[in-house]
Amino acid sequence: MEGVLIKISAFVAIIIAGYMAGRSGAIGQRPGEVVSKIVFTFTLPCSVVHAFGSAQFTPQLLLLVPVGLACAFIPYAAAAIVSRRCERADCVFYMLNICGFNIGCFALPYVQALFSPEAAVAVCMFDAGNAMMMTGGAYALTGLIAGTGKGPIEQPLKFVAKRLFSSLPFDAYLVLIVLAVFDIQIPQQVVEFTEPIANANAFCAMLMLGLMVGFTSAGAKLKKVAVILVARAAFSAVFCVLAWMLLPFDFTTKIVICILLWAPASAMGPTFTLWCGGDEKLAGLSNGITIVEAIVVATCIVLATGMAG
Question: Which DSSP category does 221 fall into?
């Protein structure tokens, strides 16, 4: 237990350091954009490759791809239905911030630090489905439902495909899933080559989260944030129960899935909210709170079950 608490404390310290550094201006202007490009271009794709190459893949894990997609899409669809009569900015805020999970920059490094390498593959499978919504799907659908504020979107299918396939982590998931299905092993040389870059993912991802956290917003708007937090918690709790009862996985994998279902809101939520003409500061506030919530819940799950390897 002491080792688990030390690793979790390190994650929290990195997030706090990122938050303080970002607010002080000590590492330049808009450092979150720079670090996020490093994460999504280098450390996260290499972390995914290393996870697949270091652990044994089983075809059963492919079930987690549609599970991840469903767990991201269902809250989005519910928000779209419930908020259809709200003002456009509120509709955008609810749809883009109630759905999806920050897997690559939170759950993956968290699980890699505390569990066996096999658990990381399960995380990647879940995130492959989650990424279909969170790397562009939600943004495109919101544009179709609420509009972008910049005119109608032409060729929506092409727009969605472009957003999805321009994401390197998503591309890596697709290629690696295909290789796994056909039982094609990743060369050991590739695994060793990506290892030092993959090892940097936890630090860079947690630093990025700290840099992007925003805790400033008008008090009158906090009710909207509360709606997001309560709704996300309700969906996470229901999904955890269903996953535990229905999914055909071992105890450890189910624990990992529960951690994924309590992961923070997607880091792209505030960005997509901005692009769709919503309140990005409010989105940043809710996003930051979900990070705190995720750390607390995930740590409680690990300590209560004693599953950290």
Answer: G
